[in-house]
Amino acid sequence: MNRMSDPVSKAVNGNALNEDHLDPTVKLRGPGVGWRRFFLFGASILATAYAAGMMTDVLGSDQLTIMEMVVIAFFTINFAWISVSFFTGVVGLVLRGLKIDAITLKRLKPISRKGSLRSKNVVVIPVYNEDPNRVFAGLRASYESLAATGEIAAFDFFVLSDTRDPDIWIAEEMAWAKACSDLKARGRIFFRRRAENTERKSGNLKEFCETYAANYDHMIVFDADSVMSGEAMVNMAYLMENNPDAGIIQSPPQPTGRQTLFARILQFISRVHGPTMSAGLSFWCMGSSNYWGHNAIIRVQAFIDCCGLPVLSGKPPMGGHILSHDFVEAAFMRKAGWRCWLIPQLEGSWEELPPNLIDYAIRDRRWCQGNMQHARLLFAPGFRPLSRLHFFMGVMSFGSSPLWLLLLLSSTIATLQNTQLTYSFFPSQFTMFPQWPVDRSFEMLVLLVFTIGMLVVPKIISILMVCLGRDRKKYGGVMVLASGVLETLYSALQAPIMMMLHAQFVFSVLTGNQVGWDAQERDDTGVPLAAAFKTHRTIIVIGLIWGAVALFVDAAFFWWLSPILAGLVLAPWLTHWSSSLAIGRAARRMNLFVTPEETEKPEELQTLARLSAEAPDANVKDGLLRLIEDPFANALHSALLPVRKPDRRTQIEIGIIYEKLARLGVESLTRDEKLKILSWPVKPLDQIMAGKKDDDAKLSDNLA
Prior knowledge:
Elements: H1 7-14, H2 33-59, H3 66-98, E1 121-127, H4 132-148, E2 155-161, H5 166-183, E3 189-193, H6 200-211, E4 218-221, E5 227-228, H7 230-242, E6 246-250, E7 254-255, H8 261-285, E8 296-299, H9 300-306, E9 311-312, E10 320-321, H10 325-335, E11 339-342, E12 349-351, H11 357-373, H12 385-420, H13 441-468, H14 480-510, H15 529-553, H16 555-569, H17 571-578, H18 581-589, H19 596-599, H20 603-614, H21 623-629, H22 631-640, H23 648-664, H24 671-678, H25 685-703
């Protein structure tokens, strides 16, 4: 393909007349892309080869059985996955320690802008049955922060609703009107609800781009729980303006806002260790970084040209519409020549976590189905090698769990086989000297320490860097180290639970069970002990049986397996206690699992907290009843509906529903009946009652 004919070259060439306006200090360029990846993958391959060789030496010291060869195969695959993460963390630690920019490899410095923005940008917020108060509180916090930068004229906001709950639908409209009024932002904040929510979030964005996006150069994609500082959004737009070959720029969002113990632990380690991994990823991905679906800015025309998603052949879950669309959209961007960047120093980007392990697992179940679909794209034509690696990593983020489970099970079987073997000191009749069994206990210990070290060393160093750094007061002061130790212990116990859950999810997907589409739990909801037992009962039984077999086979093997078994058997108590809001708040009082967003809360999060506290009661009122009784709400709803006329059949259906409404009240209507009425201008109360009187009069005449 002629380089100057591809879309990227056209974009760059189109900016030639404006070259004097470009800021060379924010050019996303860096030296040595090849050697960065050579180092990462070379070091990972060497470490994996060393570990696999050591495992082979340990198991093959006497004689390799078929099951031991299976153990070695599973171990090698999983260790390769671990080693990539380990060396990514090592690079991130070096970059953070030396304060070096991951892309340019120059001294890290804040993004400084020259002049005002020249582009037109839009913040899009796709929502589906979310709490309108929380959605618009986040929007308003971001909007006010953006207004404070003086660049609000360069931005619009769109709430893109796919909501199917009639009460939430009307609450969204009212919350939008209030936000526009309070912020004096009419003509700058828009609301649009789709009549048909095909293709879920990706279809929502697709329809927006087809309808409105021609008016904008870039769009910043939010999730329902996203909040961003105005500085972060302006910096993202500025980077896009000055890097005309950039298709996506991703910020690393930090989790915040939840108070259960589970969420606090995850918020803490993400804030401590997350920047390390972001720096490492940015270092070796460079312009082939991934897109995480939110808190990122996208070049609109590039997205329209490149990111139409295919429908996979076959039935869901492995076929049909692609659920984890973000990885695929980034791959299509790279396929067309656009660059995708992860910028670790883009601070002021936040999201929220599920409040407990069960809700966290429910979210993972949705992601699992989408990520497993990426296996079908691994060898599709045209994708860049790094895009294929991102697909593979997406698959392995869930596929590694059943592999670890198979590794542990095959190790148990291999140990059982070895205990049943009678060792032959003279395996050949021509051997004059006995062949003594070889003790490999030291090598096994070395291999175990090596593997665990690869898993936890980068995280431990990240914790120590915070503990010894100037900002440790922001993380709880002297309690940082205690937080790190407790987090490591909790992660060790939680890991086998997530291994079993993820293995179950993968099996469910591969056997044809698809997932539903529900809103994420966004309150600090706990898990009762009975519910935790119900969820984890299978895991407990497996842990008890597995432990009994291991103890019967070999007491030493049982103790080697005990951390895994402890996590499985303690699963319901761990889930219940970690979901506790009271324990989470007690941890905060003890300065455990503290993040900078708590000690020095940013203005945006303060606004979010204030607006959330001022919001009306969490129970959404009946939307249809509100329209019947409130003329303003009725007029607003009618104005937001598309201009059209119902056909004869629809008129009859609506008439029947109104008759039922007049006689039996709003409570008698089903959700679908409410949606049917709400899809057209709603009659006010006096018209409904007048219709009922007419019907009663006709009935009296007929009886007479």
